Structures are given as structure tokens and as C-alpha cells.
Amino acid sequence: MTAPTTTTAQQLLQLDGVTVRFGKPGARPALHAVDLAVAAREIVCVLGPSGSGKSTLLRVVAGLQQADAGQVLLEGRDQSAVPTHRRGVGLMFQDHQLFPQRDVAGNVAFGLRMLGTSRGDQERTVTELLDLVGLPGAQRRAVASLSGGEQQRVALARALAPRPRLLMLDEPLGQLDRGLRERLVVELGRVFRELGTTVLAVTHDQGEAFALADRVVVMQDGRIAQTGTPLEVWQRPATEFVARFLGFDNVVEATVQGEAALTPWGKVPVPGGTVDGPCRLLVRPAGVRLTSAREGLPCTVAARTFRGTHVALLLRPKSGPQIEAACALQNAPETGETVGIAFAAQDVVVLDTAAG
Ligand SMILES: Nc1ncnc2c1ncn2[C@@H]1O[C@H](COP(=O)(O)OP(=O)(O)OP(=O)(O)O)[C@@H](O)[C@H]1O
Questions:
Q1: Model pTM?
Q2: By the 8 A CB rule, do 130 and 136 touch?
Q3: Could you report the predicted ipTM of this complex, rounded to two decimals?
Q4: Judging by beta carbons within 10 Å of its beta carbon (0-12, 13-18, 19+), is residue 108 exposed, middle or buried?
Q5: Domain count, the chain
Q6: What is the C-alpha to C-alpha distance for residues 184 and 168, in angstroms, rounded to an integer?
């Protein structure tokens, strides 16, 4: 027997050139020729500013929105003629809309009843899922008696109960306070990994995405600006848009010459192998090192903000744009002090201007 010449591992979800337009022809599409593949058991988080197309992406995968061009494939099968309820995908939206007249068990078992699952199996699944989401024994509680976080867990259990092959979450923790979101996002990750659930989640909160995702997708104006592991995207934002979206503002015009670039801040070292010529350069705040005022580039400390793990400094050099630096609390200078700075090549990123 001969092996097939090309072996591409089948993706659970694949979008090929998916375009969605609202309104007038010629207007910017909400999704523009989007290609995306999600492997089984992968947790992918879609990040992006408001209006970048995140919800439209989920809706087109769920079959709640028709694509004007391109294809959505689930386990290799084109879904264009498959209605939402036959796609085997689960949805959990920000306004999770539990049924107020049903108790917790009635809510969690909803999808199973629709599938005609036996009562015994329903009860077993509800018990298992309530244990998993940290609400053991809550079957008979009234939905109205639950806190926001507890309701979110019930909504999650309800979405998981029919064992969807793909679970889609739209701002799943959007309305909860930050502390609760940080705890729940860790729990969500644990539940998904324990069950082997494939997840496509949308959030505008990068902290949430980075905590949950195996891979993040950053969207800009209906296109994918970058995709990679959280670490890859954080360390190497591909474009100025992605860098600024992640909150990095140390971006300048530069001209690379060998091992350094000429910038408004003077010479900045660049990573080995950087091509000579003009570019946009990002210096991540962690790569701005404080030196004595006599060495390095002299700057005035314009502001300092305690961030829990470090102090964020806003520095004003004599020339060039202001610079953000991150430093340890014990080394943080006071506002108004003059410091010197040097740049570390490993935190310098040459941005792709063509796509940015
Ligand atoms: N039903 C609709 N009719 C017309 N335009 C729409 C419709 N739904 C979305 N759009 C437009 O499509 C674009 C993408 O919207 P989408 O809701 O997908 O963005 P998003 O990234 O999810 O935004 P947000 O974070 O605010 O939810 C926006 O310009 C939006 O105004």
C-alpha cells in the first residue's frame, strides 16, 4: 500500500476565505477572507477591538450568519447547508439568559432534554457537570438565588451538557467583576482541558485570552492581524496595530544599520539577523533598563504607577516620544527625578509595516 502523498491533519474547524458583508456593496466587510483552523481539543481565543468582527466570526461558525464568500468546515464537512441546531456546536454568550422559571438542574439539562436523553442519563450528567463547575448539589436551587459568578457556572454547565464538538464563548465573563473573572478563567481552562473540549472564545480582554488560550487570534477590521501562542504574540507582536492593542506604546520610526537602529531616542540595539533599512520599532517596557543619569539616554520621570508586580514608569527624554519602562518596586525612581536609560535587544521588535 502506498501512503497518501499529502497528509494534512484534519482540523475540527476550518474557515477558508470567509467573507461577511453587511449593508452596502463596497462597504468594508465585517469579515474579510478569513482563514482559520482550530484543531480538536484546542482552546483558541479571538481578541480585538470593538467592531473588528469577533462576534460575526462566531455567528458564521454557528450558522447564525451566512457567509457571502468562503466556507466553514466542521470535521472537514462544508456547513453552508447545515442549520445551527445540526452543527453540533455549543454557544455561551455574555448575557447567558438562564431560564428563570427552571431550577439549576432544569437549566443544565435543557439541551439533553432536546436531544431526548433519558432521565437517568440527564441526572447523571447534571451531577457530573455541577461537580466540575464547582456547584455540587445545586440541582434544586432557584436561578434567581445564584450570584453572577454562580449563574455563569450554570450557563457553562448547560453549554457543556450536550457535549458539543465545538464550544463557542462570546465574552463569557464579560459582566463579572475583575477578581471573579480572574478566578473563573482559570477554572474554565481546567474544565475544558479535563473534558477535552475544543473552544473558540471571543473576548476583548487580553488578560482573559492569555490566561485561557492555547492560541490567540488578534482581529483588525475584519481580518486576522496575528495568530500565535499567547507568549509568541506577547513577545513578538507582528504589527504596530497588535503592539498598541496589547498596550505597548514605545513604537518609533527607525533605520536599521547592522546591529543597531537609528531612532529619535538615539541608537537602539536590534536582534541579530534584522535586515538593514527603514522600519517601525517596538521596545517592550521590560527592555528599557534604568542606568545612572550620566550614562544612557537622559530622561525625566513624568509618572510612576504601581502595577502589583512592577512599577510602570513614563519617561520623557530630551528628544523623541515619551517612553514606558517597567521596573522593580525597589529600584523605581520618584516622579521628577532624572534617570538614564539603555535598551535591551531581546525586547526590541521590528514591526511588519506592510500588514500594520
Ligand atoms: N447585523 C448587523 N448589521 C449591520 N452591521 C453589522 C451587523 N452585525 C455586525 N455589524 C457590523 O460588522 C462589524 C463587526 O461587528 P462585530 O459585532 O462582529 O464586531 P466585534 O468585534 O464582535 O465587536 P464588539 O467587541 O463590539 O462586540 C461592525 O462594523 C458592526 O457594526
A1: 0.88
A2: yes
A3: 0.96
A4: buried
A5: 2
A6: 16
